Structure formats: C-alpha cells, structure tokens
User: What shape does this take?
Amino acid sequence: MRKFVLAICLSSAMAMAADWKLSLKPRADLKADAPVLVEVTVKDAKGAPVEGAQVQLVLTMVEMDHGATKFDATQIRPGIYEAKPKFMMGGKWNIEMRATKGSESATAKQQVEVEDQ
Assistant: This one.
C-alpha cells in the first residue's frame, strides 16, 4: 500500500503546471438529470490551441456533499473538447476542468447554476 501511495505522489510531483487557459461553454441549458453537451477550450500562453490533451471535467455540488463525478472529454477540433456531464440535481455546482498533455497540466474552475427538470 505504501509503494502505491508513493508512486502517486511522485507522479503528481513530476507534472508541470502549464500556462494554459481553459474555458467552458455549455451548448444548452444546464438541467438536472440530463446529459448536457459542453465545450472546453484549451489554449496555450500565446493563444494557440492545445491539441491532443486529455481533458476531464470534475463536478461537485456547492451546497451539498455528493462527492465528485468525473467526465472525460473528447477532442473534436484542435484545442476544442466536448463532454456530456450529467448533474444529479439542480443547484450550484463547481466544474473543475483538468487538462494534461505529457508532463504539462492545467486546471480551472467555473461555478454554474443547474435548473431542476
């Protein structure tokens, strides 16, 4: 068990924070209990698209502890990634965007309001 934990810590320590800008754009109204298409844009410090990154969304509710729900995004164009997160209920949610490519990674958070169905 200790070797496993140590490996995770070393792996995290080797990732370098990239100077990337991550932004999120819902393609429809955010409603509870229905997958909603969202677009994540990943650009480098010069504004160029970051291609071939692994992008993940992590959802956490602001006012209640439902744990974290993760959704992988797929690249649809250079620097543009799509995911279909599903929010379990209406209310305020945090969406953390995580992008990793090689040894570089970046994160950004956005708070959204999700409507009840």
